[in-house]
Amino acid sequence: MAGVTIRDIAKRAGVSIATVSRVINDNYYVSPDIKERVLRAIEELHYYPNSVARSLKNDATNTIGFLVSDISNNYFTTMAKAVEDVIHNEGYNLIVCSTEDKKERELEYLKLLISKKIDGLILNTTGENDDFIASLSEHMPLVLVNRKVYSDKFKGDFIDSDNIQGAYNLVSYLLSLGHRKIGVINGMLTVSTGKERFKGFVKAMSEVGIEVNEDYPYRYDGDFTLESGYQGAAKIMSASDKPSVIVIMNNVMTMGALKYFRSNGIDVPNDISIVAYGNIDNIELMYVQPTIVTLNAWVIGNKAGEMILERIKNKAVSNREVIYVPQLIEGNSVKKIESNQMYSVSH
């Protein structure tokens, strides 16, 4: 709610302005039931911008928050190390939190980091708290990595790869090798990475006259996790008329799919080909080395570290966007379809 004041909170809670102030600043005793009424009023009236502003100290703590969707993903572990290397040289420390892509957990960690008086925040968002994050960005230096916040009020920076082009390049590569029955294991369509990579997939397929819609037989929308990759591969491979290749939209789901194939005696690329979006750690040690388009966590982490430091030093910096162009790197995971074997998706 725009323009909410401490007077509005007091009226909603049925208490005095002084009582609201005491609850917000936590500097005098307030009985638990009254405190609960005030906090409920703050929540209901979306009083976050003012409470955030009050909670931010004028003096620096030399700490930066790094809030990601899944710290068990080596992509984010690598990114955290890259960020830390940059900010440590300037005397800053890093606090890392993982949301498991849960809206409530992200909100809890955002409030925790605010209470820790961090000087800036690097965020890979769930896509479920855009209004709160946009409000926060008015008071705190903020850099988004890989996932956008859809709000005109957001103030900060954004770093990613060109998701549409990367997915488009993967599918175009497969089409050039004769594939037409192309499966896709994607993440959530509620986040920009899921939306944009799927858009690139659809665009490439449409150029050869194949429509990808809700009824597309080789589509699985997951959540970017290992289990999602495993279940997506299981579902797609259960079709009586199987695809010749599957496009997998992140590194972790790729490992999940490979786990399914190995557990079920499915040979890559002889039984099924695969390609993946994003770099895979230690790929050179793997028996199956997926063809990928690059998504370099170290490069993005370094840039995020640089940009958050610049924004901390100069909070008046205009919004900036850095988009890296993904490069296709061939592995040994794709089998060419001979011209006499080419086929189309049946509907």
Number of strands: 12
The helix/strand class is alpha/beta
**Shape summary:** elongated
**Helix-strand sequence:** HHHHEHEHEHEEHEHEHEHEEHEE
- How does the major sheet shape up? 6 strands, parallel
Task: Name the CATH architecture of the largest domain.
Answer: 3-Layer(aba) Sandwich
CATH class placement of the largest domain: Alpha Beta
- Distance linking N and C termini: 48 Å
Per the CATH scheme, the topology name of the largest domain is Rossmann fold
Taking all residues together, what is the mean pLDDT? 92
Helical amount among residues, as a percent range? 40-55%
As for the number of domains, it is 2
InterPro entries: HTH_LacI, Lambda_DNA-bd_dom_sf, Peripla_BP/Lac1_sug-bd_dom, Peripla_BP_I
GO molecular function: DNA-binding transcription factor activity; transcription cis-regulatory region binding
Protein name: Transcriptional regulator, LacI family
Domain HTH lacI-type: 4-58
Can you tell me about this structure?
- Pfam families: LacI, Peripla_BP_1.
- This is Transcriptional regulator, LacI family.
- Keywords: DNA-binding, Repressor, Transcription, Transcription regulation.
- By secondary structure, the protein is α/β, with parallel strands linked by helices.
- It has 2 domains: 63-162 and 297-325, Response regulator (Rossmann fold); 163-295 and 329-341, Response regulator (Rossmann fold, 3-Layer(aba) Sandwich).
- It contains 12 helices and 12 strands.
- It has helices at 6-13, 17-25, 32-44, 48-55, 74-88, 103-115, 130-137, 163-176, 192-206, 226-237, 251-263, 297-313, and strands at 63-68, 93-98, 120-123, 142-145, 157-161, 182-186, 219-221, 245-248, 273-277, 291-293, 320-324, 328-329.
- The strands form 2 sheets. Strands 2-1-3-4-5-11 form a 6-stranded parallel beta sheet, sandwiched between helices.
- The longest helix has 17 residues, at 297-313.
- It is elongated.
- It starts with 5 loop residues before the first helix and ends in an 18-residue tail after the last strand.
- The relative contact order is 0.13.
- The model is unreliable at 54-58 (pLDDT under 50).
